[in-house]
Write a structure and sequence with these properties.
With 593 residues, this protein is an alpha/beta fold. Helices cover 57% and strands 11% of the residues. β9 and β10 form a beta hairpin.
Length: 593
């Protein structure tokens, strides 16, 4: 890329002009503002101390040096400490012919040696997937695609939370109130049925706490002594003791949940290379904890519970094993991390988990290091913000979550209503129309979520997400379909496939090409920062720029056949980049709409 050449030439300029040695990394670039003439902007301020001149004088001297040594530079201008370089048209045309038209444009084919393990989804088997899970799954899936485009071998893993007190709550409720109900007899998905009993447990548990507090028992004590929670704790103890009755019901209800999850994942377009189960990994975690006690790295208290003391590291004591010998979340995460590290020897283990777990992963890394495990240094927590609705936060235990299946169906129906109203499917068969509604609906959902920086909380508005104007998935999908329609019309009209070099570029053509040039660096940056939002917003900028070109510059109406061929080729390459970028977000684009 030309940026590296410019950096190297800036290093040479500082050496030749000012007799100073610098590294290329000191040279900063910015995207030239549209109102300023220029294609690349070099930030000259870091060079001022070497030149011992004003920013303007330094920029002018460096600019003249670059122009003399890089043949692609036509001229330059200086605004304060910013050096704006204008490239010759031949530079952009060479890029379009030699790089942008390549099938591998924007990807790095060579794999890094050590794989990256990427964990996402991590559902609980006591409830169906909800809107928060959707953000998690979409982030994980897109990041896996982005890392693969950057040459990494990615192992996509799912850790199913299939054990623990929350699972036992569903078991208790089912045993008490189900009357043998099954997904088939109830006519609902298995994960929804299991979730129904989790919500029922919490409702009855709250009533029991209210009753106890009304009798004068403090609320904290009531929460611990309520009969339902005592039953759930006993079921957890029986589960860890491998009680046949509890294990059988647990396997049945988990099976229902897995079937439901599989349907949701399929529609969402998410898949995994391997699935881990906490019911397996917690045993390895317990073994690690016991070994830590033997090595006196961990503390066993008089009641039998096991803790790690992190006070010297600015934290507190953390429970790793309860006094009754049952494990906590940290226990199984220790086991999972160690098992994965031993299996794959990864360069990184990336956990896509909400930002409320920042402390948890900080402790996890520290405990593994205390235990002498290298897996601790490989862990990276990609924390993301919560998803809220216009109505406020969701609460699983109160049954006020937005169910993932219901949301996807709502997006489909909204896409159908909007698309039919706009008359975009009048000549479609029923099968074609249904596929388009699914493509638009899920594309709107995925894009609206992924365009937001993962670290930020976000407000999800289904109606806003499916607007055909603005920074939305349907707008980008429509732009792609418009390009394909243009190419089909050209083919039907018998336009020449030969693409001659134009004698000059109009401003709109040049702006589209400049954006196309940025695509590989955007993909790299998104991989470095693990942020699909960078790609999403880039693709929107490209679609918006192309639409301006399409509205202001004639393509098929152009009289010069050579210019028509060039503009069709530019349109085709733009469509390919839009398709590639949307694919990295896990979004399909329709050929017509």
């Amino acid at each position: 890329m030309i940026e590296q050449k410019i950096r190297e030439c800036c290093v040479a300029a500082v050496k030749d002009l000012y007799h100073q040695e610098i590294t290329p990394e000191i040279i900063g670039f910015e995207r030239t503002k549209k109102e300023i003439e220029g294609d690349f902007t070099v930030v000259v301020f870091p060079l001022v101390r070497f030149a011992r001149k004003s920013p303007e004088a330094t920029a002018a001297e460096v600019g003249e040096y670059l122009k003399s040594n890089i043949p692609w530079i036509l001229h330059y201008n200086v605004i304060k400490g910013f050096l704006n370089l204008v490239m010759k048209e031949a530079f952009w045309l060479d890029f379009l012919e030699e790089e942008a038209a390549s099938p591998n444009f924007g990807t790095t084919p060579d794999y890094h040696q050590a794989p990256v393990i990427l964990e996402y989804s991590s559902p609980n088997t006591n409830k169906p997937l909800h809107l928060g899970h959707i953000r998690n799954n979409l982030l994980g899936n897109s990041i896996s695609l982005i890392l693969e485009a950057n040459g990494y071998h990615v192992i996509k893993v799912n850790l199913v939370n299939d054990r623990g007190i929350h699972i036992c709550k569903s078991l208790v409720a089912y045993m008490k109130w189900s009357n043998g109900e099954t997904p088939k007899s109830a006519g609902i998905k298995g994960d929804h049925l299991v979730g129904k009993y989790y919500v029922l447990f919490e409702k009855q548990y709250k009533e029991e706490i209210r009753s106890l507090t009304a009798s004068g028992i403090p609320e904290e004590e009531a929460a611990k002594s309520a009969g339902l929670i005592v039953e759930a704790q006993e079921v957890l103890r029986r589960w860890e003791a491998q009680d046949p009755e509890i294990i059988a019901l647990w396997q049945t209800m988990n099976g229902w949940a897995y079937e439901g999850f599989a349907d949701t994942y399929k529609r969402l377009g998410v898949e995994f290379d391997k699935t881990y189960y906490e019911s397996d990994t917690y045993l390895l975690g317990k073994a690690l904890v016991y070994s830590g006690v033997e090595r006196e790295a961990l503390i066993r208290k008089p009641d039998g519970s096991i803790w790690v003391d992190l006070q010297d590291e600015g934290l507190d004591e953390k429970l790793l094993m309860r006094s009754d010998g049952t494990s906590v979340y940290m226990t199984q995460d220790l086991g999972t991390a160690e098992q994965r590290y031993n299996e794959y020897h990864p360069s990184r283990m990336v956990y896509v988990v909400g930002n409320e777990q920042i402390y948890h992963f900080d402790v996890l890394k520290r405990v593994l290091r205390i235990l002498g495990k290298p897996s601790g240094d490989a862990i990276f927590h990609l924390s993301y913000g919560m998803v809220e609705l216009p109505e406020g936060k969701m609460k699983s235990r109160e049954g006020t979550v937005v169910d993932a299946d219901d949301l996807m169906e709502e997006m489909y129906l909204t896409a159908e209503e909007t698309t039919r109203t706009l008359g975009k499917v009048d000549d479609f068969s029923d099968k074609e129309a249904n596929l388009l509604f699914e493509t638009i609906g899920l594309g709107a959902l995925k894009y609206f979520i992924l365009k937001v920086d993962p670290k930020k909380n976000m407000l999800f508005d289904p109606k806003e997400s499916i607007d055909f104007n603005g920074n939305t998935g349907p707008f980008i999908q429509y732009t792609y379909a418009r390009i394909q329609s243009l190419l089909r019309k050209a083919a039907d009209a018998g336009s020449s496939s030969f693409v001659p070099r134009p004698s000059s570029l109009v401003t709109q053509e040049r702006e589209v090409i400049k954006l196309l040039y940025q695509y590989p660096s955007i993909v790299r940056q998104a991989g470095d920062e693990l942020s699909p939002a960078l790609i999403a917003n880039y693709i929107y900028d490209l679609a918006k720029e192309y639409n301006q070109f399409y509205q202001e510059v004639p393509v098929l109406r152009e009289e010069d056949p050579a210019v028509v061929s060039f503009r069709l080729e530019l349109s085709s390459i733009t469509g390919d980049v839009i398709r590639k970028g949307m694919k990295l977000l896990g979004i399909n684009v329709p050929e017509r709409m």
